[in-house]
Each structure stands twice: as structure tokens, then as C-alpha cells.
Design a protein that fits this description.
Signal peptide: 1-26
Order of helices and strands: HEHEEEHEHHHEHEHHHHHHHEHEHE
GO molecular function, one term: hydrolase activity
Largest sheet: 10 strands, mixed
Protein name: Alpha/beta hydrolase
Pfam families: Abhydrolase_1, Abhydrolase_4
Distance between the termini: 26 Å
Number of strands: 10
Shape: globular
CATH class of the domain at 16-134 and 186-237 and 399-469: Alpha Beta
Number of helices: 16
InterPro entries: AB_hydrolase_1, AB_hydrolase_fold, Pept_S33_TAP-like_C, Serine_prot/Carboxylest_S33
CATH superfamily of the domain at 16-134 and 186-237 and 399-469: Alpha/Beta hydrolase fold, catalytic domain
Strand content: 5-15%
Strand order of the largest sheet: 1-2-3-5-4-6-7-8-9-10
Helix content: 25-40%
Length: 478
């Protein structure tokens, strides 16, 4: 997917669905923990043998708790200081569609490793991802077919829309019950079954990107079962794939103009011009020649500006644009799956089951045109707006509500993936204390010295406001 966008998003459910079925309690189960490297195919062989894996059984449909069951893959690293152990922290890296079972190891290797001193770190693959249960909908020839280059832009877009609609309809038809229940709310309910299986009265939670919506969904339904919750790179409390595109492209427009100003300060290195307007005009000419390759550089994160500027110079001087990364989707589930860390269709299902925006081609096309005109530096039609082509399942919008459990929000001043305004809106909706990081790096808290605030929060419950420094912008040549 585009390098400056991370798959993200949200809750699906009505307030009625948050009642008795959501709160129904399952009997505690005894988990059969085994070393992940011994049971999970493709597990990192260099794992230090601390990470254990198990399966937790949950209902497909929580309105039918005695109906069809599926397994959710869970991992654990025990607290390194058992005498100080306070409980568990569940972890989610975002997506949706992204695997989370490796999160304990990644947190242990980060600046936030101190969380694992007095807490067990718990990762899991959400339903529909890697080792957890999934819908069987393998790709077919034609799923990635491209429109004829001779078609007008609108007809190219229509071709892609209709192509994706066929894929969506085929995968929904493969297992309608499972797909209908691919919602952020149900993943939150799965988390509560994991809590029960662990034998814990309360859980901590650390979620990033879409994981912040997952956290908000869990806290909405199970506030009394939250010990402490930290949400980094916060989603908007309302969801529409088109509105998400609007906000992300608007933030990318600001980034592109800031990037042009940065290049102007280093004209002796890059020779695009010594004034921001001159540089921006030169970059837009280059964008018109090379298309999305340049657009992705323009809206890329600040930490990549030196490399991006170097690549743009190469393009200007006759270099070839970078090749598109290949994409794929593994199939199967259970410990014998070939994991690839991501499931595109699971992401689509969770997004489209929740999105309240229009789904017809003509409306989506018009919004794309308006977006291109409103943000000329990026001139992007958006990435998500056509994702729900052909999606016929009923919309299940989320309804986040305030809670009383300790909540730490973390926003990023310049970020285009989850713009800072979303964190402010989420705070207004559900409460919590907002810490602002002065960077544009999506979910960067665990990689910064500021992660000490996360460690302190989970150990003491003390929230932090104010701001933290992000990583500096590397200078040219670095």
C-alpha cells in the first residue's frame, strides 16, 4: 500500500449490540501454553524462548454464544520481575488486518520494554488474521486486473470499482456469517474472552492506530474491566472511509508544503530552488510526470525527507521511478498457516461493516474530484474511498462512550496518517489525557525516550499531558 499510509480504522456495532450478549461471561478456561517456536509455523527462530502461544475459543457471533466457535491465537511474555507483577497488558499494533501476535517481542525490544517488567505482555492475532480463524477466499486471476490505459480517468476508476466489488461480493458469499461478524466490536469481545481465559479481573491495553478504535470499543463495552489503557496515533471517533481520505489528504497537503520549504533551505544540495513556492512548483511538475511515486515522497514522514529529496533529485535528473512493492495474501489458519502479517480482506470487512459513507460509484467519484481540487499539492483521489465497492452487508456504526478507567491518549502534531485533530475529537468523545509528540511518525511512542511515560502510566496509573520531542529530521546526506 502507499508508503505514507498505514491501514487503519474502526468499530462496528449498534448500542443494542453492546448489551447482554457483549457482557455475557464465558467460563474461565485453562490455556495450554507452549513455546511459540515449537507450535507456530514460520515463528522467528531467534526468539529467546520467552514467548508462549495458546488458542482461545470464542463465538463467531456473540448474539449466539452457544453457536459456531472459532480460535484466536494468543501469545505471552511473562513479567520479568514476578515479585512486582501487577497484571497483563494486551497489545495491538493497528491495521485492521495486521497481526498482533509478535507484539510482546517487539515491545520488549523497544523503549517501552519497561512495561514488561511488572506486567505480562499479551499479543494476539485478531479474528481473520494469520494464525486466528479466517474466511477462505483465495485470490483468483483477474482480482488485480488493470484498466486499459486508453480509457478516460473516470472509466478507469469505474473499472477498478467494479473489479473490487466482484472480489468483495465473492469473499462475503464464501462465509457470510463470519464476514458479518468481522467488526471492531467483536474483536473487543474476543479480547474480553482472552481476559477470562487468562483469569484476570482487569486488563491493561496498549493500542496503536486502528488499535486505538479497538481500545475505545473495549472501554465502551467493558470499562469496569480496564485497568489502564494507552492509545497511540488515535483514530477519529466517527468513521466514514471517504471522510478518512479527506482528513489524510488534507494533512498530506500540509506535509508536502512543509517538505518543499525544507528542500528550499538546502538548495545548495538539491538545486530545486531557494524559496518554498519555487520548490513546490518544481516538485509538482515532477509529480505530473511521474505520478504517485512523487506524491508518496511529497507526503512522506519527516524522518524520510533526506532520502525522499535524494530520490526526487534522481527522478528529476533521469532516474527511474521506484517499482511498486508486491502484495499478497496468505490463506489458511491455525498454527500451520504461512503467516504474512496482514490480511487485506479482513481489513476491508472491518472497515466496510462500520463505514457510514456512500458506497455508489458516482458519489465516490465526485468526492474524489473534489478532493483533488481542494488539495492540489497532493492531488490525490484518496486511498480508502472505493474500498467498500459492492459491500452489501448492513452498516454497524460504532458508538464510543466515555468511561472512568485511566486513559492515556497520544497524538502526533504533524502526522498525516491519523491527524492530530482525531486525537482531540476522541478525547472530547471518550475522555482521557492527551500527550502530544512533536513528530509525524505514526505510532512512534515506543521508539522514543518519551516511552518512559508509557512505562510510568502502566506501573502507576499516572497520565501525562503536555508534549514530547520526536526524532529530529535527518540532515541531507545522513
Amino acid at each position: 500500500m502507499p508508503r505514507n499510509r498505514v491501514a487503519i480504522v474502526l468499530l462496528a456495532a449498534t448500542m443494542t449490540a453492546l448489551t447482554a450478549p457483549a457482557l455475557a461471561s464465558a467460563s474461565p478456561t485453562s490455556l495450554e501454553w507452549k513455546l511459540c517456536k515449537d507450535v507456530a509455523k514460520g515463528w522467528e527462530p531467534a526468539d529467546d524462548q520467552r514467548t508462549e502461544c495458546a488458542m482461545v475459543t470464542v463465538p463467531v457471533d456473540y448474539a449466539k454464544p452457544d453457536g459456531r466457535k472459532i480460535d484466536i491465537a494468543v501469545s505471552r511474555q511473562k513479567a520479568t520481575d514476578p515479585a512486582r507483577r501487577q497484571g497483563v497488558v494486551l497489545l495491538n499494533p493497528g491495521g485492521p488486518g495486521q497481526s498482533g501476535i509478535h507484539q510482546p517481542r517487539w515491545i520488549t525490544d523497544s523503549e517501552a520494554a519497561g512495561i514488561g517488567v511488572d506486567h505480562d505482555l499479551i499479543g494476539f492475532d485478531p479474528r481473520g488474521v494469520d494464525y486466528s480463524a479466517d474466511v477462505a477466499c483465495p485470490p483468483l486471476p483477474g482480482d488485480d486486473a488493470e484498466a486499459s490505459a486508453s480509457l478516460p480517468d473516470k472509466e478507469k476508476a469505474r473499472f477498478v470499482f467494479e473489479r473490487d466489488a466482484k472480489v468483495n461480493q465473492r469473499c462475503v458469499a464464501a462465509d457470510p456469517e463470519f464476514v458479518r461478524n468481522l467488526t471492531t466490536e467483536n474483536v473487543a469481545r474476543d479480547m474480553d474472552r482472552i481476559r477470562e481465559a487468562l483469569g484476570e479481573e482487569k486488563i491493561g491495553f496498549y493500542g496503536v492506530s486502528w488499535g486505538t478504535a479497538l481500545g475505545a470499543a473495549y472501554r465502551t463495552a467493558f470499562d469496569s474491566r480496564v485497568d489502564r489503557m494507552l492509545l497511540d496515533s488515535v483514530m477519529s471517533p466517527t468513521f466514514d472511509v471517504g471522510a478518512m481520505d479527506d482528513a489524510m489528504v488534507a494533512a498530506g497537503e500540509v506535509t508536502a508544503r512543509d517538505f518543499a520549504g525544507w528542500i528550499a533551505r538546502y538548495d545548495a544540495v538539491y538545486h530545486f530552488g531557494d524559496r518554498q513556492p519555487v520548490v513546490l512548483e518544481a516538485l509538482l511538475r515532477l509529480r505530473d510526470e511521474h505520478g504517485e511515486t512523487v506524491t508518496n515522497y511529497l507526503a512522506g514522514p519527516r524522518r524520510d525527507w533526506a532520502n525522499a529529496a535524494k530520490a526526487l533529485v534522481a527522478l528529476r535528473d533521469g532516474g527511474a521511478p521506484a517499482a511498486k512493492p508486491a502484495s499478497g495474501q496468505g490463506r489458511g489458519f491455525g498454527w500451520d498457516v504461512d503467516p504474512n502479517g496482514f490480511n487485506t480482506f479482513q481489513q476491508t470487512a472491518i472497515l466496510c461493516n462500520a463505514s457510514e459513507g456512500p458506497r455508489d460509484f458516482e458519489t465516490i467519484w465526485q468526492r474524489r474530484i473534489e478532493r483533488v481540487h481542494a488539495y492540489p499539492a497532493i492531488a490525490s483521489p484518496g486511498f480508502w474511498n472505493g474500498r467498500c465497492a459492492g459491500w452489501a452487508l448492513p452498516v454497524q456504526p460504532w458508538r464510543f462512550t466515555p468511561g472512568t478507567s485511566p486513559l492515556q491518549l497520544v497524538g502526533h502534531t504533524y502526522e498525516p496518517v491519523t491527524p492530530i485533530g482525531w486525537a482531540l475529537a476522541m478525547r472530547e468523545r471518550i475522555g482521557g489525557t492527551l500527550l502530544t509528540i512533536e513528530d509525524d511518525h505514526h505510532g512512534s511512542l515506543s521508539s522514543l525516550p518519551c516511552a518512559s511515560k508509557a512505562v510510568e502510566f502502566f506501573s502507576t496509573g499516572k497520565t501525562a499531558d503536555g508534549s514530547c520531542a520526536g526524532a529530529p529530521i535527518p540532515p541531507p546526506g545522513s
